[in-house]
Every structure is written in C-alpha cells, then in structure tokens.
Amino acid sequence: MSRRMSPDDRRDALIQAAIRVIARGGVAAATARAITAEARMPPTSFRFVFSSREDLLSQVIRAVTDGERMAAELSIPYGVAATLEQVIVAAFDAYLDLLVQDPDRELALVELALYGVRYEPALADRQYGFYYREAEGMLTQLAQVCGITWREPGPVLARRLVVVMDGITTTWLADRDTQAARAFIRGIAPWFAASALRVAA
C-alpha cells in the first residue's frame, strides 16, 4: 500500500502514526519500528521520509500546531462586525473544539514537552520557541483584522497566550469538562481584550 503513496502522503501518515503512538505510550514508545508498524508500512519507510527521530518529533510539533493555528484563523469572522472579545472567544473555542475532537494530538504534545524537560531540554526549548512564534503570529493577525494594536510587546503577550493554552489543554485532558473550559474562555477574553488599543482611523 505504501508504494502507491506519494512522499508527502507517506510523511503525513507517519506523522499521524507517531501522534497515536506517543499519545498511547509516551515518547519512549515512539521508535521507528513502532511508528511504521502503526502506519502499516515497512520499517525502511521511516528513513526515506525523516532524517532522524528528532526530525520526526519536530514535524509532529509543527503538524499539530499548524492545525491549531488553522482552526483559530478559520474562526475569525472576516467582514463581520464583531468585538475583539467575540473574536478572541471564537479563536479559543475553535481550539477547544479541535482538542475535544482529537485529544490524542494535544496529548502527544504534552508528552513531548514533559519528555523534553526531563531528557532533552533542547527539544523542549525548540517546542516552546515554536509555540511562542506561532502565538505571536496569531496575535499579529488578530491585530490586523480587528484594527487594534497591542499595549505590550508581542513576545510578552505570546508567552501569556501559550501559558493560557497550556492551562486549557492540560486541565481539559484531566477532567474532560468542556462546559467549564468554555466558561473559562469567556472569563479570560476581557483580560486579553484589555491589552489592546484601537487604531485611529
């Protein structure tokens, strides 16, 4: 079956297999053999797609984070009159919907972060560095769409956003209380909105 797959399809299938393996058994379980078996591919498939295990883990982080950012971007009500608070709620709700729909994706990232902190600090640094850059990009886009500027530097707000997202993620993974998560989102939206200044027309 894998012989008929394009290189991109093979890469995506292996990344999705890696996410399932990590969510199920942690990072230590994510060997090349386990991942290719999960993807129902021959063991040699791995080395044709990834230069190393570190390359795979980095691509797992990017793939999940790209999905999160896409969900948030699609939630932005372009061309529709909405307050900044409403836009913020919509973006967080879109992330929460993604989390509820496929918890394994986020569980895999939590596993990667904890593994990195314990065994590979450089991996954790890269993971959170990527999170901060993505968060800052999202905040920049929100500012453009909503006609505002942020009172605080981008890196400061980006870190704040990542901390909040981590809290939503780990708490929901622990209790699966979606209603409480949505209530929390609506509680912090004014806090984020208070960091904005309206740009003069």
Automatic annotation (TrEMBL):
Residues 31-50 bind DNA. SUPFAM superfamilies: Homeodomain-like, Tetracyclin repressor-like, C-terminal domain. It comes from the Bacteria. Coiled coil: none annotated. Residues 8-68 form the HTH tetR-type domain. Keywords: DNA-binding. Signal peptide: none annotated. This is TetR family transcriptional regulator. It comes from Protaetiibacter mangrovi. The lineage of its organism: Bacteria, Bacillati, Actinomycetota, Actinomycetes, Micrococcales.
